Amino acid sequence: MPNENEKAPAAKRGARRIERRLSRLTDSALDSLEEMLADGSLKPSDRLSAVKLAFDLAKSRSQDPSPSDGTVKVVFEGIPEEWAE
């Protein structure tokens, strides 16, 4: 049975592997989010959800948080009524 010293390298390798995977997934998720923001064929409510997520992510990463109350007003004009949920 391996002792703690023998387990540590495997645990470190596993942690590095997870970090690499998370980095790739994060890149992919951000690419998808950008595509949603630019996709005019999506329902405005779906795009608004993407906007909110983008702002939340940006705010959480910000070193200098905005002094505002965090309210963002988004107006969609000329959209089909069924999309305005």
If you had to describe this structure to a student in words, what would you say it looks like?
The chain has one domain. The mean pLDDT is 77. It contains 2 helices and no strands. Helix 1 packs across helix 2. The chain is elongated and about 60 Å long. Helix content is 62%, strand content 0%. It has 85 residues and is mainly alpha-helical.
Concise account of the structure shown:
The protein is mainly α. The protein has two helices and no strands.
**Tally of separate domains:** 1
Low-confidence stretches: none
Q: Helix count, per DSSP?
A: 2
Largest sheet: none
Strand content: under 5%
Distance, first to last CA: 60 Å
Helical content stands at 55-70%
From the helix content, strand content and strand pairing, which structural class follows?
A: mainly alpha
* Coarse morphology: elongated
Strands, count: 0
* Average pLDDT number: 77
Q: Output the helix-strand order.
A: HH
Radius of gyration: 20 Å
Give me the secondary-structure topology.
Blueprint: H1 4-38, H2 44-61
Helix pairs in contact: 1-2
Features:
85 residues, 62% helix, mainly alpha, 2 helices
